[in-house]
Write a structure and sequence with these properties.
18% of the residues lie in helices and 40% in strands. With 296 residues, it is of the alpha/beta class. The strands form 3 sheets. A 6-stranded parallel sheet has the order 3-2-1-4-6-5, sandwiched between helices. Strand 7 and strand 8 form a beta hairpin.
Length: 296
Amino acid sequence: MIMKIALIVNEDKKRAFEVASQAAALLTSAGAEIYTSGNCRIDGAICAGTAQEVIRDTDITVTVGGDGTIIHNAKFAALYKKPLLGINLGRIGFVAKPLLGINLGRIGFVANIEPDELSELSKLLTGDYRIQSRMLLEITVDKDGAESRYTAVNEVVLHRDTLANLIDISVELGEERMISYRADGMLFSTPTGSTAYSFSAGGPVIEPDMRCILLNPICPHALSTRPVVFGEDSVLRARVWPSSTFKCYLTVDGQYHIPISSDDTVTVKKSPLELSLVILKEKNFYKLLSEKLKEF
């Protein structure tokens, strides 16, 4: 049976096309069929609709770009239970039917291989790889009794829209009010996202295959305020206090921006979906973390 591989390319990066063409040539010579999306034109590959459609109809997804490319397509891979591999084109790389990422971005903690490691792609056809499951978050926004749901790979951020004001946020664990914050905002992160925005906000690094939810206030107005790690079965609810009279927003993985008022409730919990990442090369997470951060 011929393996069908989705090759999703960051079309804003010229080098991404070069690396994608090399990957496509290697995979087709090994007997795979390659499918791409949008206006991407790669020799030997078939353009077959949107990224979501291509991921749905193939066996494995390979992304070429940075972590942003992986995160954007990871939700489709998780939805259709497809593995994903990321190829990293950047200076730094960690995220997988499976998802494989080739990193072309600046950090790339989710990607598994670099452009000089493309020969590893042949393992996709021999099955010589493992799958690492990553926990995702399900976010529910309740507005006037109407619910909207979103999936986060990295994090969801509750924040203000101005640069000189704090907002007051309360958080409930289950049905019990747990803590209140006055801060620039608050983020809820997956272990995968602990090396992203949360890391920049002073949060701890968490091994990406762990199961937990990280709550991290952003620039809190209290010396005693610290990040908190909750178990994977925790259900957290956040509200903005009425005293926060200016506009607030909820941002999911930097992609969705939802206006939030004091009448709305944001619920964060583990998603029933999981992201399956293809691991072609075993790399020590903490050694990789140290090496990548030294590159800045």
